[in-house]
Amino acid sequence: MNVLIINGSPRINGNTSIALNEMTKIFDAEGISTKVVQIGNKDIRGCVACESCHQSGKCVFNDVVNELAPEFEAADGLVVATPVYYASANATLIACLDRLFYSTHFDKTMKVGASVAVARRGGCSAAFDELNKYFTICGMPVASSQYWNSVHGREKGEAAQDDEGLQTMRVLARNMSFLMKGIALAKEKYGLPEAEEWTPTHFIR
Ligand SMILES: Cc1cc2nc3c(=O)[nH]c(=O)nc-3n(C[C@H](O)[C@H](O)[C@H](O)COP(=O)(O)O)c2cc1C
Fold this sequence. Notes:
Elements: E1 2-7, H1 15-29, E2 33-38, H2 53-56, H3 64-74, E3 77-85, E4 88-89, H4 91-103, E5 112-119, H5 124-136, E6 150-152, H6 163-190
The structure holds flavin mononucleotide.
């Protein structure tokens, strides 16, 4: 059982890393392996709507997004974490997730998702809502915690002082582990829910 963790921060060992380390400790204890990929310091452009991924199954820009795709396909769960920039997830993470979710066509149903937002003070819940939307458009159940998944800190290292935030991360990782294990058992017993062919209407007909 394994979880892919995407860290949207450009700061190595920044506050988002502190939040994610708290989760990783719990995944280790639960016997779930993790792979953390920090993408916030990479040159990731946005989607150009060329639609070539419909044929090729991968993004036309051959960067870390195409490296993340097979890791995501193999994962039982996905954590996406962002530093809050102007009350939003940061632009690099959004560019990465737009392209990752749009260009990959494998079935994401019942892979468990969790999002984490880290900020000095404001915008965590807006960024949290924004990130959860990647999961809820493709059949991914969302793991939750005792509070909306946020941790506070400004300068590097300050998040270590946010006891409640770190507790929220530990509870989130435990709940996510439980969900992934439960879903694995349910898949064995019942299989995935019956799939329907998509009926696109685009609001025009
Ligand atoms: C461009 C930019 C915009 C930011 N906007 C916000 C914001 O809207 N709200 C907030 O509380 N903090 C904001 N911050 C502060 C960061 O969210 C905060 O420093 C966070 O701990 C960074 O996480 P990191 O160390 O993982 O990169 C902003 C920082 C930057 C660089």
